[in-house]
Amino acid sequence: MGSSSIIVNGTPRACAASPHVSLLDWLREQGWTGAKEGCAEGECGACAVLVARPDVPGQTRWTSVNACLPPALALDGQEVVTSEGLGAGPTPGQGAELHPVQREMADRGGSQCGYCTPGFVCAMAAEFYRPERAPQAGPDSPECGANGFDLHALSGNLCRCTGYRPIRDAAYALGDPDPADPLTARREHAAPMAAATAVRERDGQFVRPTELATLLSLLADSPDAVLLAGATDAGVERNLRHTRSPLVLAIDRLEELRTLVVDEGMVEIGAALTLSEIERGLAGRVPLLADLFPQFASRLIRNAATLGGNLGTGSPIGDAAPVLLALDADLVLASAAGEREVPLAEYSTGYRQSVRRAGELIRAVRVPLPLAPRTAFYKIAKRRFDDISSVAVAIAMTLEGGVVESVRIGLGGVAATPVRALATEQALVGQAWDLTTATRAAEVMGNEGTPLDDHRASARYRSAMLKQALLRFFDEQGPTKPLQKDGFGLRNHSENGGDR
Amino acid sequence: MSTPLAQRPPQPAVGQAVAHESADLHVTGAALYTDDLVGRTPGVLHAWPVQAPHAHASVTALDTAPALTVPGVVRVLTAADVPGTNDAGIRDDEPLFPAEVMYHGHAVCWVLAETLESARLGAEAVAVTYEPLPSVLTLTEAIAQESFQGAHRTVSRGDADAGLARSTRRFSGEFEFGGQEHFYLETQAALALVDEGGQVFVQSSTQHPTETQEIVAHVLGLRSHEVTVQCLRMGGGFGGKEMQPHGLAAVAALGSVLTGRPVRVRLNRTQDITMTGKRHPFHATWEVGFDGQGHLQGLRATLTSDGGWSLDLSEAVLARALCHVDNAYFVPDIEVHGRIAQTHKTSQTAFRGFGGPQGMLVMEDLLGRCAPALGLDPGELRARNLYQPGQSTPYGQPVRHAERLRLVIDEVSSRADLATRHTEIAAHNANSPHHKRGIACTPVKFGISFNLTAFNQAGALVHVYKDGSVLINHGGTEMGQGLHTKMRQVAATALGLPLSAIRLAPTRTDKVPNTSATAASSGSDLNGGAVKDACEQIRDRLAVVAADLLGVDPGQVAISDGTVSGGEGSMPWGQVVREAYLRRVQLFAAGYYRTEGLHWDVTRMQGEPFKYFAYGAAVSEVEVDGFTGAYRLLRADIVHDVGDSLSPLVDIGQIEGGFVQGVGWLTLEELRWDTSEGEGRGRLTTQAASTYKLPSFSELPAELNVHLLERATEDGAVYGSKAVGEPPLMLAFSVREALRQAVAAFGPAGHMVDLGCPSTPEAVFWAVEAARAAGRVDSRRVDRPAPKALADIRMVD
């Protein structure tokens, strides 16, 4: 058993925590009480901290994450910065030394009760240091400052006091990081490598192998082990449902699970890439995924959550599955015995059940090319930022001569698993893409799945939303509407209203 | 010699826009909250509740022995351990360790252990046997079964029947709307330890340290002078820490007394949501009449609040609801009945506005629904009914400064360019079949002071040290509202010192006793009056010393920005203070304030319970997506009356924060209980941040403009200011009414929109569907069948 340590605010600290102690609780036990627990499920951001994560080779990206979710041990060998590490409050005889983000937040009334503030400061600092952030032409917009600050960077932070306006003002007032700022300088060096961690405590074992083969062999021996990538689901299980797994296998830094490959026939996305990494790597080239990302939880979650985790938990309301169904994606399943490829449409077999065998993990997701030219993702939720879908609908359609040549519709939230709207697809294929077809297909769509009543929405509303989604799609992507552009140059446009 | 309450000296520290006094601590994470003390306190025991899985049940057996076998478990606290009274309430109706479970999640006992994990495992091991009993969950069930608690009250004036009889248009309706979870980001927390000599010291996240102290003493069988409660600061309160902290502090204190070790009670979010009270949901039935010009003639209404399992503050909340049904409108003949349902849910409690929002919502909803049938723009209908100077409320209080209602509406309409935007929105809607916009302006009139007159008093303790530095204590608590910031400004103003000379100490019951809750928006009015009083006593004593030193009369001495001057001479503050000490002049003072001129007959519901009214108005514009019912808040403009602001940055923050919190209550935040007959009956199904959604950045209007009403000196309050904590919450009615307008645009002219509340996307979608259906029927020239609204609004004329 090696000794684990985490560099907090520049100083290494030995970490002798149980595998079931969150980074947040560990930090607070160490005396860093700036980060707070507000919800313990990654919804409020009061616990947000900065972590030095890999960026382009040789560089580091300050990445904001919820400290309440990962086990502290998952940060073994990593660098963490909390609000206390960004600046210092007043001490006897000395005034405060504030970071530019802290200065703006303090001066503009960005804190009232102050409890959510350290988390806001960290999430805001991550965006402050984002290398791509650049001044925009024109004035501030509701969701992007003239300084290039993307407000979605704060979509996972809740404040109950201010109503957010002064926080937005603080964010949009930020200038560029000073090159002499140590965190700015830190970006120019590679992020810490993943540490090979193996800790056995009385109440459980935490192992981070550095080789896929080792991992698969461990998994073959202990098929019930919890696979931990971003911990955005496992952390909630631990905190709210008090799950205590005997063995946790961390897979988030395995290179084999972090591929992003584009070739003529497909895009392969490693199952342990974070959604933020995929978003940056694809840079809008898969429009349906580009539509999904801003609506998928929050930036704090996307900085940790992975496609493998989202699909692996098998939740019927995960937003990735409907989109990937519409994209006709396959999953690459790996085990000690080798790899196999399974269509996502055949992956789920029941509520949180799948064809994944004992000892298998999702290594990658493959999206076939070319992409359908007419796509849309509709997420129906109470709140626009960071909510869980009542219903999610993803549509990918190809027209030929004004007729629907092919269409795939993925649905979330209307059955025990994510499903394809097969009856609706059938009602569309071969039909002229006109209002009559759309209206008729919408009626079919309204009867897809078996929606339930729950605290998010009524079954009746869910069904209505299915129907409305198709009407909306027609309104937005009727035959005369211009086509979306994808990033692969693989699309063959003809002039007769067809898509290929 | 005290100066008039509202009068400001030249160059006062009040009125300056300064950052929150703890802002530097907040942003660096250095600010300490109660639970941050745990790691700084050696030997702390952690507590975990055993929560009952029934809405209503008898506890027939409780076996704690299995818990004691869990490693780390030190003790299980049960009713048998209580040395004093097993009651955490103010009416002997809230047993701390209940023998009868009154709601799903009710804590029946608490486990103390060396770690939180051990405490949790210990709680799982406690064996409790329950005998389930019948439960009442919804307001509908409670009304049907006549499950009520507390007193029924009525506010009335004139003859409601006569008012209705002379009306040319009459409507009746029914309206049920939801409560609200406080969701302060810092959950309830207490840390107790026993000092030397049996003195109990409790650090508590409480809005009401005195009452926390009293209940801890009550449970422990101690006198108040044996218990000290301190509140460093709260991570939000909003009323949720006015009553709810007491029992938790008592558990911590009891554990500490019994084990001799510090005990920490901190609820995690799930426990907090499932165990603590919330804003009261309400049900209302009403009948209203208007004359031919749309003037309100008569209103008869019955309001039923859902009080949950115990009375808590429900009677006071109901009283405020009844006193605010009128909102900003004169109703000559009115009779409003109020009653409190008892249900098997958390005991609903104070929440920003304290019943006022619920009362006012009934009126604003009613006007929004009736306007189309009256053929009036809802803004016009509202304008025609505003209070005029000289008129009184139904409970007999003159509406002083009623002209400000018109003033704030005119000003906000002008700043928001309301008339132009009405036209633009009409043009937009005509060309946009699937996305409709709506705009609405609504006013707020909110009474300031505790309805219960006795609570309108406060104390302060101000020390001047020999080096001239100043430390102030007062009875109010800081929960983010900026009270401490304002109190420093008040002290600096009263003493004539720069703000940097004033330090503020945490709120403690051994410094200032017998305080009222920091609630009812009254924190600055009451504590500001007390701080000012204490400072002026000291200033007057120093003036005598300075007069002697400067060779002038005391009346000629002025202190400004730390310089004491009189006649031709001047000297630094510090020099006068040192000289005063040498002359044996007392350099500290206790200050006291009580609000004058209040009287209230709680039985007749008549009197003048409020020192003054706070006024405001908002214009909000929304866009509704007809496919989903989802909407965006495009712009909001607010003009609000805070008197002469003590601290503009703080006040604007309160206005914006209150507004967005109100938007959350009215449009987004939805509490759902399992009302099935299954095993989960009574369980709160929205018990986490993932299922109970409060506003995020997406609810912040794209454009939000707040202006403070100028030249608005309030003679009856400290330095001419007005309270600001609660009133702005109700500015959010403008958003819900704008949604109603946008929904109406999907239907034919004159369509009456019945909108569920909270007006979630789903609720808006169904209202849009109803509007579209009405339009389809109209366009086919078929006799219009009764739309859904008519099930609620029965036209009786």
Can you walk through the features of this model?
The complex is a heterodimer of chains A (500) and B (797). Chain A has 500 residues and is of the alpha+beta class. The longest helix of chain A is centred in the C-terminal third of the chain and has 19 residues, at 459-477. In chain A, helix 15 packs antiparallel against helix 16. In chain A, the strands form five sheets. In chain A, strands 2-1-5-3-4 form a five-stranded mixed beta sheet, with helices on both faces. Chain A has a five-stranded antiparallel beta sheet with strand order 10-11-16-12-13. A four-stranded mixed beta sheet of chain A has the order 6-7-9-8, covered by helices on one side. Chain A folds into three domains: 1-208, Beta-grasp domain (Ubiquitin-like (UB roll)); 255-368, Uridine Diphospho-n-acetylenolpyruvylglucosamine Reductase, domain 3, CATH 3.30.465.10; 374-477, CO dehydrogenase flavoprotein, C-terminal domain (Enolase-like, domain 1, 2-Layer Sandwich). Mean pLDDT of chain A is 94; it is low at 491-498. In chain A, strand 3 (48-54) and strand 4 (60-66) form a beta hairpin. Chain A has helices at 23-29, 83-86, 100-107, 117-128, 165-172, 182-186, 212-221, 234-240, 275-282, 287-292, 299-302, 307-312, 320-326, 422-428, 435-445, 459-477, and strands at residues 4-8, 11-15, 48-54, 60-66, 79-81, 197-201, 204-208, 226-228, 247-250, 260-262, 266-270, 330-335, 338-343, 348-350, 353-354, 361-368, 374-380, 391-400, 403-412, 419-420. By secondary structure, chain B is an alpha+beta fold. Chain B has three domains: 23-31 and 457-594, Aldehyde Oxidoreductase, domain 4 (2-Layer Sandwich), CATH 3.30.365.10; 39-135 and 182-275, Aldehyde oxidase/xanthine dehydrogenase, a/b hammerhead (Aldehyde Oxidoreductase, domain 3, Alpha-Beta Complex); 282-447 and 611-795, Aldehyde Oxidoreductase, domain 4 (2-Layer Sandwich). Chain B is built from 20 helices and 30 strands. In chain B, the strands form seven sheets. Chain B has an eight-stranded mixed beta sheet with strand order 3-5-1-12-9-10-11-20. In chain B, helix 14 packs parallel to helix 15 (523-550) and helix 15 crosses helix 16. The longest helix of chain B has 28 residues, at 523-550. Chains A and B meet through helix 2, helix 3, helix 4, helix 5 and helix 8 of A and helix 1, helix 17 and helix 19 of B. Chain A: GO terms for molecular function: 2 iron, 2 sulfur cluster binding; FAD binding; metal ion binding; oxidoreductase activity. Chain A: InterPro entries: 2Fe-2S-bd, 2Fe-2S-bd_dom_sf, 2Fe-2S_ferredoxin-like_sf, 2Fe-2S_ferredoxin-type, 2Fe2S_fd_BS, Beta-grasp_dom_sf, CO_DH_flav_C, CO_DH_flav_C_dom_sf. Chain A: Residues 2-86 form the 2Fe-2S ferredoxin-type domain. Chain A: This is 2Fe-2S iron-sulfur cluster binding domain-containing protein. Chain A: Residues 199-372 form the FAD-binding PCMH-type domain. Chain B: It is an enzyme of class 1 (oxidoreductase).
